[in-house]
Amino acid sequence: MTAALKPQTRPARGIVAGPGRGQPPGPIHHQRVLPPPALAPIVEHLWLVRWDFPPGSSFVAITLPHPVAHWTVEGEESVVRGVSQRPFVRTLSGAGRVVAVKFRPAGLGWLSELPASHTRERCLPAAELLGLDTPALGALPDDEALAALAARLAERPRRVAVSARIARDLAERCAADRSITTVDGLADEAGITVRALQRLFEREIGLPPKWVIQRYRLHEAVEGLADLSQPGLAELAYTLGFADQAHFSRAYRAAVGEPPSATVARLRASLARSPEGR
């Protein structure tokens, strides 16, 4: 039996609609656990979503992706989903379960010599890309399925990946430090030229540094919009470093697929339908 993994207590970021952001028509369970220490350099956490809805009902989940790859296992499908600039939209219906690994930025760099751009906007078989033979998870309880996936990934040999580590640390610095709002500022932090920073991110993360910086600010926007007690959009835009509300609204709509006002309206409607909102 595999060892149990500790829960990930840090709040999830980037969920526009899904667990905690709407009223599903039936039970839905979202679980996140920390990786074992051996995987900590490349894995942020493992996650699981399980749902069981009445026939004919469905629920749309929308996530604003992080600049990372995922290894997901659903039934017989085992794939690596590369970084994506598009929102991830999935309509859940019937009953199902997804068990997955969320890598840290540039995490695939420890497992493959291919540039991260090779998997960008792609979904590739895990066996083909990384030689990952998926354990049989179907009969395992949730906790054991997560631990089994972690154990299989831990068996995978890793290479020395100095540039991937540098890119990972810089991307995570963008997530943690709200004062980083420009590529020039991040290049100064790294002590390299802007062009060198752009090449590093393109190879190891698969996305430009400007996009990564803005994506993390938009994650904060999603959280700000979800807090319906907060003041208006203009103040949120200013807090996140956007020039004005119009600039913020354009960036948000381009990333999420809807204006921030539509997100707020949907969240308010969901709250009104919930027992707590009545």
Topology:
Layout: E1 15-17, E2 28-33, E3 43-52, E4 58-63, E5 70-74, E6 77-81, E7 88-93, E8 95-103, E9 123-125, H1 126-130, H2 142-154, H3 162-176, H4 183-190, H5 194-204, H6 209-226, H7 233-239, H8 245-256, H9 260-273
Description:
Helices cover 37% and strands 19% of the residues. It is α+β, with helices and mostly antiparallel strands and 278 residues long. The chain folds into two domains: 15-154, no CATH class; 162-272, Arc Repressor Mutant, subunit A. The termini are far apart. 36% of the residues are buried.
- What spatial form do the alpha-carbon principal axes imply? globular
| Overall pLDDT confidence | 90
Number of helices: 9
Share of residues in strands: 15-25%
Distance linking N and C termini: 45 Å
Please list the strands of the largest sheet in the order they lie side by side: 2-3-8-5-6-9
What count of structural domains? 2
Order of helices and strands: EEEEEEEEEHHHHHHHHH
Radius of gyration based on Cα positions: 19 Å
Major sheet summary line: 6 strands, antiparallel
Structural class: alpha+beta
Percent of residues in helices comes to: 25-40%
The counted number of beta strands is 9
- Identify low-pLDDT runs: none
Which descriptors would you attach to this protein?
278 residues; alpha+beta; Arc Repressor Mutant, subunit A; 2 domains; six-stranded antiparallel beta sheet; three-stranded antiparallel beta sheet; 37% helix
Concise account of the structure shown:
The chain is α+β, with helices and mostly antiparallel strands and 278 residues long.
